[in-house]
Amino acid sequence: MIRDCVFLGRMSVIMESVGKKKRRPRRQFTPEFKAEIVELCRRGDRTVHQVVKDFDLTYSAVAHWIEQAYPDPDAPTGPTREALTLAEKTELTALRQENARLKQDVEILKRATAFFAKETR
């Protein structure tokens, strides 16, 4: 029995070390280096994945640098929801009221069904 406990204890220690990845230390890069990496990716000689592998970088970091260097002009910069017109606001209010009324109707019908189901038994 003691052997099993020791064996299980050793196995748990082994399993803990197998599942964990070694964390990469946080590195800081100069703006010049970032610009060079972005230019390598933009030129088209190599793919982003090749540049990432060659320079031992993370894909997400390089993608972020590219996004910073060349922001998407079509991307929304402010709130994406535009203001509603008066007609849309009126329709929205009416639809919300109708929705609330229909929810009440459903609740009443559920109660009536339960009531009549009890009476027929």
Automatic annotation (TrEMBL):
It comes from the Bacteria. Gene3D superfamilies: Homeodomain-like. InterPro entries: Homeodomain-like_sf, RD_transcriptional_regulator, Transposase_8. GO terms for molecular function: DNA binding; transposase activity. GO terms for biological process: DNA transposition. This is Transposase.
